[in-house]
């Protein structure tokens, strides 16, 4: 059995909206208060606070006269936010993430409920302290009863519920097709068989409307209702761009997984590439990291193989015919001729063919990506 989250939009009643607003506020307050408590304990007394001590701090807050409002909402989301904070600290100390940040009320709000804080009966979901079920617009039937439920509100004011369920992934029939994928900006990606997928550039499509909305927002008085309305308009435009991007990536990744048994891609360090001030906006809009992430989990569910080659492998500078590697190949050069075998190459298609060959070699040799790059690609970087 595999766990999968099913995210749907819902429309709360006025009473549910008030309850969720209090719940989001209490979750945010507890997270920030405990984070301040842990931070001060370390810098002032060199004391490390774990989950047990953090939970004790939550109990102390709920007993205080000034923070008695914490008892008005379910205690489960408050405890779950401390578990998430503990995970955030673990990732920080192990070098996988930055120090946890304080939560803001202007960004996405969420609250997680375990089985003791919700009921799911006959397709209806009841949250703790709410008598009416959530008006959820189900996109599909849940494969099983949810184990946890996460209710969220984005910056555009939309409400979503994410149900974590167990399901049996359907393995697709084996196919002999294999593909190499070269990610880019002019084209979102190019496959080893010469198929090009254009970059829709969703941000550029809504750039004029976004600039106009942001200009109007900047002229509103701080703290006014008109500024809050203008902020909502900007947030809705950003949500529209994000939804269009995700919809396109989901369709493309599903098509690639359905058609190919083996998928070869580059293991790009997108966060490092975003440091380029000229290309950062275009790279973020393309969504390379999200596309590869979707390919990874969808391939695993479908019984496909995803092979990621070393990021330093010279896929563009290597001739796919004879293997010769040129010294330099500027980005503006889209077509080039190999000085050894005189074969003409399209830069992107040649890179995709090389990625496919390197990815298949990784699977055949049974070595990791880094080892593959060091063993068979040595001297060619």
Provide a descriptive summary of the structure in words.
With 381 residues, the chain is an alpha+beta fold. It has two domains: 166 residues, no CATH class; 144 residues, no CATH class. The chain has eleven helices and 14 strands. The strands form four sheets. It has a five-stranded antiparallel sheet. Strands 10-9-8-11-12 form a five-stranded mixed sheet. The two termini are 43 Å apart.
Query: How many structural domains can be distinguished in the coordinates?
Result: 2
Number-wise, the strands total 14
CA-CA gap between termini = 43 Å
Which bin fits the share of residues in helices? Answer: 40-55%
Count, helices? 11
Task: Give the uncertain stretches in residue-range form.
Answer: 368-381
What order do the SSEs take from the amino end to the carboxyl end, as H and E?
EHHHEEEEEEEEEHHHEHHHEEEHH
Lateral strand order in the biggest sheet: 2-6-7-1-5
Give a quick set of tags describing it.
381 residues; alpha+beta; 2 domains; 5-stranded antiparallel β-sheet; globular
Condensed summary:
This protein is 44% helix and 18% strand. By secondary structure, it is of the alpha+beta class.
Q: How do the strands and helices of this protein lay out in sequence?
A:
Blueprint (H helix, E strand, L loop, with lengths): L1 E9 L3 H32 L5 H13 L11 H19 L15 E6 L3 E4 L2 E4 L8 E2 L10 E6 L5 E9 L10 E6 L3 E5 L4 E3 L3 H4 L1 H12 L6 H35 L2 E5 L3 H4 L6 H7 L1 H15 L2 E5 L25 E3 L6 E3 H19 L3 H8 L5
Parallel strand pairs: 8-11, 11-12
Antiparallel strand pairs: 1-5, 1-7, 2-6, 3-4, 6-7, 8-9, 9-10, 13-14
